[in-house]
Amino acid sequence: MRAVDRLRARRESRTAILLYHRVAAAAHDPWGLAVTPANFDAQLEVIQRRSTVLPLSELIAGLQQRKLPRRSTVVTFDDGYADNLLQAEPILRSRGVPATVFVASGFIREHREFWWDELEQILLGDQPLSPALTLRFGDREHRWDLSDLRHEPAYDRARHVSWRSWHPAPSRRQALFLELWKQLQPLPHASRRTALDSLAAWADRPCQPRPSHRPLTTDELRTLAASPQVDIGAHTITHPQLSVLSDGAQRAEISESRRELEETLGQAVTMFAYPYGGPGDYTQRTVAITRDSDFSCACSAAAGPVRAGDDLHELRRCFVPDVGRAEFEVWLDSQIEGALAR
To answer: Could you say which DSSP state residue 81 is in?
Structure first.
């Protein structure tokens, strides 16, 4: 990069939209979704000191007008965990930091955990598992020979609790967890729930919603939406992988989630986030549907800062790690400024 280009880049406004899911001290967290309350508070202190903190709606207005601070951050949450109200909101309020919470509306009324948490509850505990598993996904039956589980070392709680899904599976149990996750992700919601019920029966581990993992209730969602720090956005009804759905099914998931939230809250819902949010989890048809549905913006989970000229319906976000103040400060700088070194 020439010196003049590097100087121009350094003057360019950049925003890191931070992607959180949970504020909790989680025991098992294979997907790294939780940030502890202490770390969350420290991270908010850093973004206030090191950037201009904006509500997502203000970022959208600034992008449209091409008027933004040089360094800014936006706080967002996906899914709609109860700890967003019980743990995150008081810290946001005490710091005066705004946030947008994207809620998968169907889970609010189901009284079940999110499906990936149910899968973790069933498989990643210390209970013994039967040596054979048969599950039906739609019209296809799948079988697993798990006899090798009997030859694995005794359950090592520390090793299992610290494992993250992007690391090699340390045991057959974790390998099965990842394999089933991949099988379950693209299924229709009802088929996925049926498969999880069968899996829980096989493991003799009935799934009760854990206080630490449950979604918001309807009343809690209303309380969260009433907070002056929080805006509510839509995140579909059943958190599907939109890329495997027809246009009609995608449109229903997207528009009905908005309708359900607006009906529950009595207020407009104007922002959207794609479930999972990776490049293969939605398509350009999905982007067109969110645009045609008059959402002011739609957020992905693709990494990187937001800059003037970016598509408002495919905004990048930065998945936040569970780290303390010093490490987070380095991480934040890399998210906002990292591309300048190239």
So the answer is: B
Domain housing 122: 115-203
Give me the pLDDT at residue 3, please. Answer: 42
Distance (Å, whole) CA 255 – CA 245: 14
* Bridge partner list, 18: 75, 318
**Collapsed DSSP state (helix, strand, coil) of residue 341:** helix
Q: pTM above 0.70?
A: yes
142 φ/ψ angles, rounded to the nearest 5 degrees = -120, 140
The answer to whether residues 39 and 338 touch, using CB atoms and an 8 Å cutoff, is: no
Q: How far is CA 6 from CA 12, 153, 308, 336, 337, in A?
A: 10, 54, 17, 15, 11
Whether 138 and 58 share a structural domain: no
How far apart (Å, rounded) are the C-alpha atoms in residues 255 and 93? Answer: 30
Report, in angstroms and rounded to the nearest whole number, the Rg of the chain calculated over CA atoms: 21
Same domain, 119 and 107: no
Q: 74 with 16: CB under 8 angstroms?
A: yes
CA distance 224 to 283: 31
Query: CA 283 to CA 210: how far, in whole Å?
Result: 34
Question: Does 210 fall in a domain?
Answer: no
Q: Which of 231, 125, 211 is nearest to 171 (CA)?
A: 125
**CA gap 290, 271 in Å, rounded:** 9
Element (H, E) at 297: strand 297-299
Whether 337 and 239 share a structural domain: yes
In Å, how far from its chain's centre is CA 263? 23
* Diameter over CA atoms, the chain: 65
φ/ψ of residue 134, rounded to 5: -130, 125
- Which amino acid is it at 266? G
- The first and second tokens of residue 240, run together, are 């599907």
Q: Are residues 320 and 244 in the same domain?
A: yes
Name the H helices within 66-136: 83, 89-95, 115-123
| pLDDT tens-digit map of 40-97 | 999 999 999 999 999 999 999 999 998 899 999 999 999 999 999 999 999 999 999 9
Residue that the structure tokens 């997502």 belong to? 56
